Automatic annotation (TrEMBL):
Pfam families (UniProt xref): Pyridoxal_deC
Cofactor(s), names only, from the UniProt record: pyridoxal 5'-phosphate
Keyword ATP-binding: no
Protein name per Swiss-Prot or TrEMBL: Tyrosine decarboxylase
Family: Belongs to the group II decarboxylase family.
Keywords, in A-Z order: Decarboxylase, Lyase, Pyridoxal phosphate
Superkingdom of origin: Eukaryota
InterPro entries the UniProt entry points to: Aromatic_deC, PyrdxlP-dep_de-COase, PyrdxlP-dep_Trfase, PyrdxlP-dep_Trfase_major, PyrdxlP-dep_Trfase_small, Pyridoxal-P_BS
Length: 494
């Protein structure tokens, strides 16, 4: 195969070839990480660039690993945005780590499809154990642990997590009120909630006119006010509608706003609503005792989700979902075809995770989280998080000291939201200026930041959380931002 010869019998899993190629691939990847700072962080290619570089059809004859890796270097890497770069500050991070990477390798090696316990018992059991470990790190209430009626499960993404719990909540209500009630079901959240909530509503058949994205503003730093929720719920009840689902967020995508879980949860409980807490990004910070307060009130929630693949050194994808009542999930999502029947499932002795998720097939994802927890340990993981938060705090201070800039919302975790300040209250010009600054900074290739809007203001977001980021990268990034801003401000004056 190495020489491109086609007359040898195909041996798709030859352990000696795996050893040889595997070593070469690991060397290739290690070199990539070693030189990652030499690449433009945000890929600068134009749409369709790859069509011109690759052939129109797949090769008839085998090619060599060298040929493929050369193409990766020359053709693929220029079109890659380097999420693992220490100067990647856009969106929220997507952490890779040696432990996470090795776990992924092991999972790829075993390549099991663990839909039911019997299809690979260790996959189900390790997932239950690791999710219990994690629940304890977060100090989640007992009801979320697997020894009672609840438990945790690894979903691909936070979007899938919110969809499955919404379907569980929907079916629970429809079982008692009848299917016709669907058109009356109402969902609540703040206008800062991730767009995955609306997508879940669309998929779950919730009428979009019954989705209340309640307005927030700077007076609560974009957290949902319980009074707004109460008012909306009362209005809907009066109109004969059925409040059934509330999503609170700890660490919103735009600005890390934290909704007041305890108060929201009380309203949810007194109206028999399902209360889901989305802590996709900020959940990681809550393993540190000093940040645990941000999920106080999670006792009132029916489900809680955080992405270990964001800021917890666990390679994508690994979204952790806990529910208090696993029957709500399984009653909505179970299937029981003849070809999957087995003694353990029939005797109700085991968890079959296929009934907690949308697809049937599932990867052995708990391995990577297990490896992260074991190879790093909770104390190291806490320091990792604290270091990013400290870097963000330092940056926030620098921004607030620069008269050209303002911090738009107070930083809570490791995201700094800021902008060039408006002159003479001219918000429109200010928004354009900040948009230009974003483009200038990102097209420099030296760093990558993203943006949002808050109360009509165009805001720059710098999220610190890539595994390789050190103080010098944050300082260099800030220097580039300041320089580009000075240039733009000077050209405005002319
Ligand atoms: C708060 C929050 N919720 C949900 C999501 C969606 O995440 P996923 O890509 O895992 O669906 C994000 C993504 O950044 C997020 O920040």
């Amino acid at each position: 195969m190495e020489n491109g010869s086609s007359n040898k019998a195909l041996k798709p899993m030859d352990s000696e070839q795996l050893r040889e190629y595997g070593h070469r691939m690991v060397d290739f990847i290690a070199d990539y990480y070693k030189t990652i700072e030499t690449f433009p962080v945000l890929s600068q290619v134009q749409p369709g660039y790859l069509h011109n570089l690759l052939p129109d059809s797949a090769p008839e004859q085998p090619e060599t690993l060298e040929q493929v890796l050369d193409d990766v270097k020359e053709k693929i890497l220029p079109g890659v945005t380097h999420w693992q770069s220490p100067s990647f500050f856009a969106y929220y991070p997507a952490n890779s780590s040696v432990a996470g990477f090795l776990g992924e390798m092991l999972s790829a090696a075993l390549n099991i499809v663990g839909f039911s316990w019997v299809s690979s018992p260790a996959a189900t059991e390790l997932e239950m154990i690791v999710l219990d470990w994690f629940a304890k790190l977060l100090n989640l209430p007992e009801q979320f642990l697997s020894r009672g009626n609840g438990g945790g499960v690894i979903q691909g993404t936070a979007s899938e997590a919110i969809l499955v719990v919404m379907i569980a909540a929907r079916d629970k209500v429809l079982r008692s009120l009848g299917k016709k009630a669907l058109e009356k079901l109402v969902v609540y959240s703040s206008d800062q909630t991730h767009s995955s909530l609306l997508k879940a509503c669309q998929i779950a058949g919730i009428h979009l006119e019954n989705c209340r994205m309640l307005k927030t503003d700077s007076s609560t730093n974009y957290a949902l006010r319980p009074e707004s929720l109460q008012e909306a719920v009362s209005g809907d009840l009066e109109a004969g509608l059925i409040p059934f689902f509330l999503c609170g967020t700890v660490g919103t995508t735009s600005s890390t706003a934290v909704d007041p879980l305890a108060e929201l949860g009380m309203i949810a409980k007194s109206n028999e609503m399902w209360f889901h807490v989305d802590a996709a990004y900020a959940g990681s910070a809550c393993i540190c005792p000093e940040y645990r307060q941000y999920i106080d009130g999670v006792e009132t929630a029916d489900s809680f989700n955080m992405n270990a693949h964001k800021w917890f050194l666990t390679n994508f994808d690994c979204s952790l979902l806990w529910v208090k009542d696993r029957c709500a999930l399984t009653e909505a999502l179970s299937t029981n075809p003849e070809f999957l029947k087995n003694k353990a499932s029939q005797a109700n002795l085991v968890v079959d995770y296929k009934d907690w998720q949308i697809p049937l097939g599932r990867r052995f994802r708990s391995l990577k989280l297990w490896m992260v927890l074991r190879l790093y340990g909770a104390e190291t993981l806490k320091s990792y998080i604290r270091n990013h938060i400290k870097l963000a705090k330092d940056l926030e201070q620098l921004v607030s000291q620069d008269p050209n800039f303002e911090v738009v919302t107070p930083r809570i975790f490791s995201l700094v939201c800021f902008r060039i300040v408006p002159v003479d209250n001219d918000e429109k010009t200010c928004n354009n200026l900040n948009r230009s600054l974003l483009d200038a900074v990102n097209s420099s290739g030296k760093l990558f930041i993203s943006h949002t809007t808050l109360s009509g203001k165009f805001v720059l977001r710098l999220a610190i959380g890539a595994p390789l980021t050190e103080e010098k990268h944050v300082m260099d990034a800030w220097k580039v931002i300041q320089e580009e801003a000075s240039f733009l401000l000077a050209s405005q004056v002319k």
